[in-house]
Protein: G-type lectin S-receptor-like serine/threonine-protein kinase
Amino acid sequence: MLPHMKLGLDRRTRLNRFITSWKSPEDPGTGEYSFKLDVSGSSQLFLSMGSEWIWRTGPWNGLGFVGVPEMLTTFIFDIRFWNTVDEVSMEFTLVNSSSFSSIKLGSDGLYQRYTLDERNHQLVAIWSAARDPCDNYGRCGPNSNCDVYTGAGFECTCLAGFEPKSLRDWSLRDGSGGCERSQGANTCRSEATRCIDGTCQR
Structure:
C-alpha cells in the first residue's frame, strides 16, 4: 500500500478497499490474511486470518488509533480519516513528500511499514504488528491479563479472584478461553469488604 491509497468503504459504490496477503512469498495469489477498516461503527483497523481477528488498532479518536500510541509521535507520515455520507475510509500521507514509505502485509500475516533508507537505497521495516503474542486479539481471553514479561514461560495470567476456565488448555499454553471466577474468592476491591450474593458488603 502506497501513500494516498485508501482503505475503507465507498458508500456510494459499496466498494470496500482492503489489503490482502499473498499466498506465499513466491505466489501472488490471494492469501489468508487481510487488513481492513471496520466500517460497522467502531472505526478501527483489523488484521484477520480468514474470519478470525488477530490484531486491531483500537478506535480512531480524531488524532490516531488508540491502540497504536506511537502513531502520535511519528514524524514520517500523517493519517487522514473520513466518516461522511459518502465514505468511511483512511489514508496515509508523507510529511516529507520527497521521502518514501509503504505498507506490506506478508504471507505470514505480519503487517509492516517500510521507509526508504536514502543512504543505502534500501527499504527498511520501521514498524510491525503483531509484534509479540500479546498483540494477538483475544490471546488470553476474558478476565485475564497478557504480559510477555511474566518470566513464567506463559504470557497469560488470571485476574485476582479468577482461575483458568480450562486447566487443560492453560497447561497447553492456550489462554484464549480465559478465566472464570474462583469459588469463594473475594473479588471486592478492599479486604474490608466481602462478596456476598454477587455484591460487595462490609
Q: What stands out?
A: The chain has one helix and 17 strands. The chain has a mean pLDDT of 81. The radius of gyration is 21 Å. The CA atoms of residues 29 and 124 lie 25 Å apart.
